[in-house]
Specification:
InterPro entries: MCP (IPR002067), MCP_dom_sf (IPR023395), MCP_transmembrane (IPR018108), Mitochondrial_Carrier (IPR050567). The structure is a single chain. The protein is built from 13 helices and two strands. It is an all-alpha fold. It has a single domain, classed as Alpha/alpha barrel (Mitochondrial carrier fold), CATH 1.50.40. The longest helix has 31 residues.
Length: 341
């Protein structure tokens, strides 16, 4: 997509299609490592595996090869929507910070726009990740539709958005990802980024396409690898917390109402009536005893019981997949752009 003067002419439709296809390809390539990551982060089954490749071998042996792709349906179904939402919100948030479309954004502005688009994308990410994690944590075959319907029947739409706060915080990692990618590309660039009058700093897909025509493949792979590592390291502890929150369910228990009243009155028992707050009956109340019910409860329960290392469980397979995923992403993106141009 080049004009005679060497500048890249952009087609938003081609960019969107190429980004979506590249997203699907990278998801397929990296998903087995994502499954291993979730297994390591899930406390109920984490002890079953000793290392990344032991986990892969065990899953294949016990659940066949398809076990590595358990839960891929929901992210595959939303990859186009995610692609559009992330890049549209990124473009909007970056434009808010730039005086003109030709202004070269700073790394800080890129990081802020990336973090903001991560928060926006959590609208789609939360239910998608919830269904995916529930499937990946199950050792028996299941379907995304069955899991989604079960969650909806038990808790409604609210149930599908379990863990949304920590998902939004985790997805702020887009800021570190975009900033690290752009900083690495600028480091390898032979001429200043944005030197062309046709530079559109608000369009990340356009920038990727431009950089593919100006940077060598090794430089692009290094940039993608650095971005993947930095993006995950910045928010990985939150990803562990997210997996535990979304992978668990409410555990209701009945507690004597007098104990609840005593706890809310400084330890002294107060008279109760059926209209007293927190009561479902004069005798008993229901309480969620799941230690992973919220972001904060998960942190304060996991740290004392498992130490600081718990917040980095599953990091190895996550970093290992960075190289093949980025190779496939860039190769697919460029192939589709050229095929449609």
């Amino acid at each position: 997509m080049s004009s005679n003067d060497g500048a890249v002419e952009l087609n938003p439709t081609v960019d969107f299609i190429a980004g979506t296809v590249a997203g699907v390809a990278s998801l397929v390539v990296g998903f087995p490592f994502d499954t291993v990551k979730v297994r390591f982060q899930s406390p109920a089954i984490a002890g079953k595996y000793h290392s990344t490749f032991h986990a892969i071998a065990t899953i294949i042996r016990e659940e066949r090869f398809v076990g590595l792709y358990k839960g891929i349906t929901s992210p595959l179904a939303t990859v186009a929507l995610m692609n559009g939402l992330v890049f549209a919100s990124y473009r909007f948030l970056l434009k808010l910070q730039l005086p003109t479309a030709e202004t070269v954004p700073t790394i800080t502005q890129i990081a802020l726009a990336g973090a903001g688009c991560g928060i926006v994308s959590s609208i789609v990410t939360t239910p998608t990740e919830l269904i995916k994690i529930r499937q990946q944590s199950m050792l028996t075959p299941t379907k995304a539709r069955q899991v989604a319907l079960k969650i909806f029947r038990e808790n409604g739409v609210r149930g599908l958005y379990r863990g949304m706060p920590v998902t939004a915080l985790r997805d702020c990692g887009y800021g570190a990802y975009f900033a690290a990618y752009e900083a690495t590309c600028r480091y390898f660039a032979t001429s200043p980024v944005g030197g062309s009058s046709k530079y559109d700093g608000s369009n990340i897909l356009a920038q990727v396409e431009t950089e593919m025509t100006t940077l060598s493949w090794p430089a692009l792979l290094v940039a993608g690898g650095v971005a993947g590592v930095v993006g995950w390291l910045a928010t990985f502890p939150l990803d562990v917390v997210k997996t535990r929150v979304q992978g668990s369910q409410a555990i209701p228990i009945q507690i004597p109402a007098l104990e609840v009243a005593g706890a809310h009155s400084g330890g002294s028992v107060i008279p109760l009536s059926p209209s007293t707050p927190l009561l479902q009956s004069p005798a008993m109340v229901m309480r969620d005893s799941n230690p992973y019910r919220t972001t904060w409860s998960t942190i304060v329960y996991s740290y004392p019981n498992e130490g600081p290392g718990v917040f980095f469980r599953g990091l190895s397979p996550t970093l290992i997949r960075a190289i093949p995923v980025n190779m496939v992403t860039f190769a697919t993106f460029e192939a589709v752009v050229h095929a449609l141009s």
